[in-house]
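Collaborator request, handled under Task 6.
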Amino acid sequence: MDHSKQIVSVTALRDVVMHEVAMPVRWGDMDAYQHVNNTVYFRYMEQCRLEWFAKLGFETVGVDIVPILVEANCRFIRAVTHPATVRVTIRVTDIGPKIVETTHDIFVGDDLYATGICKLLWMSRSANKGVSLPDAVRTRLLAVKS
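Structure tokens returned to the collaborator:
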């Protein structure tokens, strides 16, 4: 048994950074206003989320039950410009019967530039509909290093 992990409540997870990734801002990420285009913030969140899935061992290719993004929003606080490195974090803020809500924070240095909320539905590709969150997924989401 791995004693480095413990099961915690969703409420306790809200402040736990599950994964973070640093990404350089590319020149092409900017738009005509010379700041990172709003759509790129969603790409930053997507990259963090996909790396987190891989870290948790969630298969997303060649399997029937997969997490899909069903809702995403972003509150833009400051404009990111080139050159910079963004640091994107992900936290689990709610776990429902079928949907997991995550919050992403996007930083440059220690300053918060944006925050986004994403809702992920576990669905069956073959049935093309949502399914109950698999127990193994729920267990992995609630297991955090102490």
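The cover message to the collaborator said: "The helical segments are 10-13, 38-56, 135-142. The chain has one domain: 5-145. Please let us know whether this matches your experimental observations."
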